[in-house]
Amino acid sequence: MFEPGDETVERLIQHLRRPVAMDAGLDARVMREIAQASSPRRRVWPLPWSVAAAAAVLGAVLVARPWARNATSRADTLQFVLIAPQAASVSLVGDFNDWDPARSPMQTAHGIWATALRLAPGRYRYAFLVNGVEWRADPGAPAAKDDEFGTPSSVVTVGGRGS
Length: 163
Prior knowledge:
Elements: H1 7-16, H2 26-37, H3 49-64, E1 77-83, E2 90-94, E3 107-109, E4 112-118, E5 122-130, E6 134-136, E7 154-158
Antiparallel strand pairs: 1-4, 2-5, 3-4, 5-6, 5-7
Helix pairs in contact: 2-3
């Protein structure tokens, strides 16, 4: 669908990485729409453009700094987003879920994959598992130091200074 280095895709990614101010309740509304869209009792496909646009805006904020919190969000709820339009599945794996892909599958809205987790204060290593085989670090978060397995991963700190 998209070729690596596609100028349009690169411009879109750069646009999505720009910080934007958002309504504090938007995150919850977007995640609720994503959950309802994947619910077996309500089939909505394709998603309304308003939901896709909201997911894109949400992705812009979270891709830029998914580990950051604003003053109105809960201190222990973090949202993780990956733009992967060609992926068939994406899971969030990390220290917080014993690196088990079944525990944190992500939902998609037109190639923007998202999930929210409640995390206790601490420092966590995490990655995205794409299509069950490809490990990806979060492009919008600090990279973790190399681990003993050589897989790319990122770091998120919950609570404490700088969060």
